[in-house]
Amino acid sequence: MSDPDETPLIPEQRRELIVKHLRRESVMSYHQLTALLGVSQMTIRRDIAALESAGRVLATPGGAKISSRLSVEPSRLEKSTRDLLEKDAMAAEAARLVQDGMTVFLDAGTTIQAMRPYLDSLADLTVVSNDLAVVGSFLDHPTADIIALGGRVEKANQSTVGRLAALALRELSVDIAFLSSSSWDLQRGVTTPAESKVELKKTAIAVSSESVLVAGSSKYGSFGRYRIFGLDDVDMIITDAGLSEPVAAGIRDQGVSVILAGPTARRATG
């Protein structure tokens, strides 16, 4: 606990100490931080909110934690059973951006694949994807033209990755790219533990008039070894209502529109 005779720390100093302690302990309660720093719990809560808005820590029920490293990408089978209601809500919001005649890039992932039923009534779409399951799901679409990106197949995620897929995508002009991620946060942006995924996602942004990250709040706060792009490199982020307001505000401050999908989707526009 802080010595009562010491000069009180200014907020910036106190917040740096909070980050230092969390890096050592990974997760701490408000009570622990209050005892360590000798300030009120209300002060600690304000500090955590400010740090979360800056993308440096994550608030949890009763405390805070530091971002965690994602060392291995979950398989498609693992992803397919998680957060199903949230995925459907995000997919519905993403599909609302698509209009007749558009060319859209649909990145690999179960959340992006969940867009398929919401696109059934649209005419003359060109669907570009590296996801084998997404490609297959559009075979019965009445009017869609389908472009499957070739490349090395990553069996666990049923998608193509690497330079060959990126080269094929580079030859196209896309209206909207819908991008997925298993790890993202304000400080590091979108990251991955798999180097083979980097070039294709970067290319998708480069060839698209508009790019949209579609990623669940449960994936926020983790990071992989390879940085793909910053959150301010996309035009919009669609996530679920589990993302905290301080984080949404921090993203908005970077000039990025945010949709928190749920029963009543909340929008924050930068």
TrEMBL record:
<keyword id="KW-0805">Transcription regulation</keyword>
<dbReference type="GO" id="GO:0003677">
    <property type="term" value="F:DNA binding"/>
</dbReference>
<keyword id="KW-0804">Transcription</keyword>
<feature type="domain" description="HTH deoR-type">
    <location>
        <begin position="11"/>
        <end position="66"/>
    </location>
</feature>
<protein>
    <submittedName>
        <fullName>DeoR/GlpR family DNA-binding transcription regulator</fullName>
    </submittedName>
</protein>
<dbReference type="InterPro" id="IPR036390">
    <property type="entry name" value="WH_DNA-bd_sf"/>
</dbReference>
<dbReference type="InterPro" id="IPR036388">
    <property type="entry name" value="WH-like_DNA-bd_sf"/>
</dbReference>
<dbReference type="InterPro" id="IPR050313">
    <property type="entry name" value="Carb_Metab_HTH_regulators"/>
</dbReference>
<dbReference type="InterPro" id="IPR001034">
    <property type="entry name" value="DeoR_HTH"/>
</dbReference>
<dbReference type="InterPro" id="IPR037171">
    <property type="entry name" value="NagB/RpiA_transferase-like"/>
</dbReference>
<dbReference type="Pfam" id="PF08220">
    <property type="entry name" value="HTH_DeoR"/>
</dbReference>
<keyword id="KW-0238">DNA-binding</keyword>
<dbReference type="InterPro" id="IPR014036">
    <property type="entry name" value="DeoR-like_C"/>
</dbReference>
<dbReference type="InterPro" id="IPR018356">
    <property type="entry name" value="Tscrpt_reg_HTH_DeoR_CS"/>
</dbReference>
<dbReference type="Pfam" id="PF00455">
    <property type="entry name" value="DeoRC"/>
</dbReference>
